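Example 220.
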Amino acid sequence: MKKLLSASVMCADLMNMKKSIQDLEKADIDYLHIDLMDGSFVPNITLGFDFVNAVKKLTDIPFDIHMMVNDPARFLDLMNLGKDDYLCIHYEGDIHAQRTLAKIREKGCKSGLALNPQTPVNCYEHLLDYMDMALVMTVSPGFAGQKIFAGAEDKVRKTRKFLDDAGFKSIPIEVDGNISPENGAKLSRCGAEIFVLGTSSLFIKGKDMTESANAFRAGL
Ligand code: DX5
Ligand code: ZN
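Predicted structure in complex with zinc ion:
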Protein backbone atom coordinates (compact mmCIF):
# COMPACT_ATOMS: atom_id res chain seq x y z
CA MET A 1 0.00 0.00 0.00
CA LYS A 2 1.16 3.56 -0.81
CA LYS A 3 2.30 5.50 2.29
CA LEU A 4 -0.41 8.08 3.02
CA LEU A 5 -0.33 11.43 4.83
CA SER A 6 -3.24 12.47 7.07
CA ALA A 7 -3.07 16.11 8.24
CA SER A 8 -4.27 16.72 11.82
CA VAL A 9 -6.36 19.86 11.39
CA MET A 10 -6.60 20.51 15.13
CA CYS A 11 -2.97 21.65 14.68
CA ALA A 12 -3.87 24.08 11.87
CA ASP A 13 -4.43 27.83 12.27
CA LEU A 14 -7.97 27.65 13.67
CA MET A 15 -8.54 31.30 12.75
CA ASN A 16 -7.63 30.68 9.09
CA MET A 17 -8.99 27.20 8.50
CA LYS A 18 -10.11 27.85 4.90
CA LYS A 19 -6.57 28.89 3.93
CA SER A 20 -5.12 25.88 5.79
CA ILE A 21 -7.40 23.51 3.86
CA GLN A 22 -6.34 25.15 0.56
CA ASP A 23 -2.69 24.76 1.54
CA LEU A 24 -3.31 21.08 2.38
CA GLU A 25 -4.89 20.56 -1.03
CA LYS A 26 -1.82 22.14 -2.66
CA ALA A 27 0.40 19.82 -0.56
CA ASP A 28 -1.55 16.87 -2.02
CA ILE A 29 -2.42 15.54 1.45
CA ASP A 30 -4.27 12.19 1.32
CA TYR A 31 -6.61 12.63 4.34
CA LEU A 32 -7.81 15.31 6.74
CA HIS A 33 -7.42 13.91 10.24
CA ILE A 34 -10.16 15.45 12.34
CA ASP A 35 -9.84 14.88 16.10
CA LEU A 36 -13.18 14.83 17.89
CA MET A 37 -13.02 14.89 21.69
CA ASP A 38 -15.76 14.85 24.35
CA GLY A 39 -13.86 16.24 27.35
CA SER A 40 -14.48 12.93 29.12
CA PHE A 41 -12.61 10.19 27.21
CA VAL A 42 -9.83 12.82 26.93
CA PRO A 43 -9.66 16.12 28.89
CA ASN A 44 -10.02 18.28 25.78
CA ILE A 45 -12.65 19.24 23.16
CA THR A 46 -11.44 21.54 20.27
CA LEU A 47 -13.41 20.41 17.13
CA GLY A 48 -17.03 19.26 16.70
CA PHE A 49 -19.53 17.69 14.33
CA ASP A 50 -20.73 20.96 12.77
CA PHE A 51 -17.09 21.67 11.95
CA VAL A 52 -16.82 18.28 10.21
CA ASN A 53 -19.88 19.03 8.07
CA ALA A 54 -18.73 22.56 7.28
CA VAL A 55 -15.26 21.43 6.15
CA LYS A 56 -16.84 18.60 4.12
CA LYS A 57 -18.46 21.31 1.96
CA LEU A 58 -15.06 22.98 1.46
CA THR A 59 -12.88 20.19 0.12
CA ASP A 60 -12.78 16.83 -1.67
CA ILE A 61 -9.91 15.53 0.52
CA PRO A 62 -11.26 12.40 2.25
CA PHE A 63 -11.66 12.54 6.05
CA ASP A 64 -9.91 10.46 8.70
CA ILE A 65 -12.13 11.10 11.71
CA HIS A 66 -10.54 10.22 15.07
CA MET A 67 -13.25 9.88 17.72
CA MET A 68 -11.68 10.30 21.14
CA VAL A 69 -15.09 9.99 22.80
CA ASN A 70 -16.96 7.61 25.08
CA ASP A 71 -19.84 5.70 23.45
CA PRO A 72 -19.10 6.98 19.89
CA ALA A 73 -22.21 5.33 18.37
CA ARG A 74 -24.23 8.27 19.77
CA PHE A 75 -22.55 10.61 17.32
CA LEU A 76 -22.21 8.68 14.04
CA ASP A 77 -25.28 10.16 12.37
CA LEU A 78 -24.27 13.75 13.15
CA MET A 79 -21.66 13.62 10.38
CA ASN A 80 -22.22 13.66 6.61
CA LEU A 81 -19.52 11.21 5.51
CA GLY A 82 -19.00 8.88 2.58
CA LYS A 83 -17.25 5.80 1.23
CA ASP A 84 -13.76 7.34 1.11
CA ASP A 85 -13.87 8.56 4.73
CA TYR A 86 -12.46 6.72 7.75
CA LEU A 87 -14.42 6.83 10.98
CA CYS A 88 -12.16 5.64 13.79
CA ILE A 89 -13.27 4.81 17.34
CA HIS A 90 -11.29 3.92 20.46
CA TYR A 91 -11.45 0.39 21.88
CA GLU A 92 -11.23 1.92 25.37
CA GLY A 93 -14.24 4.16 24.75
CA ASP A 94 -16.81 1.64 23.56
CA ILE A 95 -18.11 -1.47 25.34
CA HIS A 96 -19.95 -2.30 22.08
CA ALA A 97 -17.08 -1.67 19.65
CA GLN A 98 -18.08 -4.56 17.38
CA ARG A 99 -21.57 -3.12 16.88
CA THR A 100 -20.24 0.40 16.35
CA LEU A 101 -17.65 -0.73 13.77
CA ALA A 102 -20.43 -2.60 11.93
CA LYS A 103 -22.60 0.56 12.06
CA ILE A 104 -19.76 2.65 10.59
CA ARG A 105 -19.65 0.28 7.63
CA GLU A 106 -23.46 0.33 7.31
CA LYS A 107 -23.12 4.14 7.13
CA GLY A 108 -20.92 3.52 4.06
CA CYS A 109 -17.63 4.64 5.65
CA LYS A 110 -14.38 2.82 6.33
CA SER A 111 -14.03 1.72 9.97
CA GLY A 112 -10.96 2.18 12.18
CA LEU A 113 -10.09 1.02 15.68
CA ALA A 114 -7.61 2.95 17.85
CA LEU A 115 -5.65 1.64 20.83
CA ASN A 116 -4.05 3.87 23.47
CA PRO A 117 -0.38 3.19 24.27
CA GLN A 118 -1.08 0.88 27.23
CA THR A 119 -3.78 -1.16 25.49
CA PRO A 120 -2.44 -4.58 24.32
CA VAL A 121 -2.41 -5.37 20.59
CA ASN A 122 -4.49 -8.52 21.08
CA CYS A 123 -7.50 -6.32 21.92
CA TYR A 124 -7.99 -6.20 18.14
CA GLU A 125 -8.43 -10.01 18.11
CA HIS A 126 -12.21 -10.41 17.91
CA LEU A 127 -12.83 -7.23 15.86
CA LEU A 128 -10.60 -7.77 12.83
CA ASP A 129 -13.50 -8.69 10.55
CA TYR A 130 -15.02 -5.25 11.23
CA MET A 131 -11.87 -3.15 10.77
CA ASP A 132 -10.60 -1.30 7.71
CA MET A 133 -7.73 0.33 9.63
CA ALA A 134 -5.80 -0.14 12.90
CA LEU A 135 -4.85 3.15 14.58
CA VAL A 136 -1.83 2.80 16.87
CA MET A 137 -1.71 5.85 19.15
CA THR A 138 1.93 6.85 19.59
CA VAL A 139 1.04 9.31 22.37
CA SER A 140 -1.69 9.26 25.03
CA PRO A 141 -4.50 10.96 23.09
CA GLY A 142 -6.02 14.39 23.71
CA PHE A 143 -3.34 16.94 22.90
CA ALA A 144 -1.02 17.95 20.08
CA GLY A 145 2.67 18.59 20.74
CA GLN A 146 3.34 15.58 22.98
CA LYS A 147 6.33 13.21 22.85
CA ILE A 148 6.09 9.72 21.32
CA PHE A 149 5.87 6.95 23.93
CA ALA A 150 8.90 4.73 24.49
CA GLY A 151 7.47 1.48 23.08
CA ALA A 152 5.86 2.90 19.94
CA GLU A 153 8.10 1.21 17.36
CA ASP A 154 7.80 -2.16 19.08
CA LYS A 155 4.02 -1.79 19.28
CA VAL A 156 3.71 -1.00 15.56
CA ARG A 157 5.90 -4.02 14.70
CA LYS A 158 3.79 -6.24 17.00
CA THR A 159 0.56 -4.87 15.49
CA ARG A 160 1.73 -5.57 11.91
CA LYS A 161 2.73 -9.14 12.90
CA PHE A 162 -0.59 -9.65 14.75
CA LEU A 163 -2.65 -8.52 11.75
CA ASP A 164 -0.59 -10.56 9.26
CA ASP A 165 -0.61 -13.73 11.40
CA ALA A 166 -4.40 -13.43 11.73
CA GLY A 167 -4.76 -13.22 7.94
CA PHE A 168 -5.53 -9.50 7.74
CA LYS A 169 -2.59 -8.21 5.68
CA SER A 170 -4.92 -5.70 4.00
CA ILE A 171 -5.63 -3.76 7.20
CA PRO A 172 -3.28 -0.73 7.16
CA ILE A 173 -1.73 0.69 10.34
CA GLU A 174 -2.12 4.41 11.03
CA VAL A 175 0.14 6.13 13.58
CA ASP A 176 -0.88 9.30 15.42
CA GLY A 177 1.10 11.49 17.80
CA ASN A 178 4.52 13.21 17.44
CA ILE A 179 4.97 11.84 13.92
CA SER A 180 8.06 13.85 13.05
CA PRO A 181 10.00 13.00 9.86
CA GLU A 182 12.41 10.95 11.98
CA ASN A 183 9.67 9.10 13.87
CA GLY A 184 7.74 8.62 10.62
CA ALA A 185 10.71 6.97 8.90
CA LYS A 186 11.26 4.60 11.86
CA LEU A 187 7.57 3.70 12.14
CA SER A 188 7.31 3.19 8.38
CA ARG A 189 10.03 0.54 8.66
CA CYS A 190 7.98 -1.09 11.45
CA GLY A 191 4.92 -1.35 9.18
CA ALA A 192 3.01 1.94 9.51
CA GLU A 193 1.31 3.07 6.29
CA ILE A 194 -0.83 6.09 7.24
CA PHE A 195 0.87 8.96 9.08
CA VAL A 196 -0.98 11.63 11.06
CA LEU A 197 0.99 14.84 10.62
CA GLY A 198 0.58 17.59 13.22
CA THR A 199 2.93 20.00 14.99
CA SER A 200 5.93 17.69 14.61
CA SER A 201 6.08 17.72 10.81
CA LEU A 202 3.46 19.78 8.97
CA PHE A 203 2.03 22.67 10.99
CA ILE A 204 5.28 24.48 11.70
CA LYS A 205 5.16 28.32 11.89
CA GLY A 206 6.81 29.94 8.88
CA LYS A 207 7.40 26.66 7.01
CA ASP A 208 5.72 25.99 3.66
CA MET A 209 3.24 23.12 4.01
CA THR A 210 3.98 21.58 0.60
CA GLU A 211 7.72 21.58 1.30
CA SER A 212 7.13 19.98 4.72
CA ALA A 213 4.84 17.32 3.26
CA ASN A 214 7.31 16.52 0.46
CA ALA A 215 10.20 16.34 2.93
CA PHE A 216 8.19 13.94 5.09
CA ARG A 217 7.34 11.72 2.11
CA ALA A 218 10.97 11.69 0.96
CA GLY A 219 12.08 10.42 4.35
CA LEU A 220 9.76 7.40 4.43
C1 DX5 B 1 -3.71 13.78 19.72
C2 DX5 B 1 -4.34 13.73 18.33
C3 DX5 B 1 -3.31 13.90 17.25
C4 DX5 B 1 -2.51 15.20 17.38
C5 DX5 B 1 -1.25 15.09 16.54
O1 DX5 B 1 -4.58 13.23 20.63
O2 DX5 B 1 -4.98 12.49 18.14
O3 DX5 B 1 -3.97 13.83 15.99
O4 DX5 B 1 -3.27 16.29 16.96
O5 DX5 B 1 -0.48 16.21 16.82
P1 DX5 B 1 1.12 16.07 17.01
O6 DX5 B 1 1.66 15.64 15.68
O7 DX5 B 1 1.54 17.45 17.41
O8 DX5 B 1 1.34 15.04 18.06
ZN1 ZN C 1 -5.78 12.03 16.20
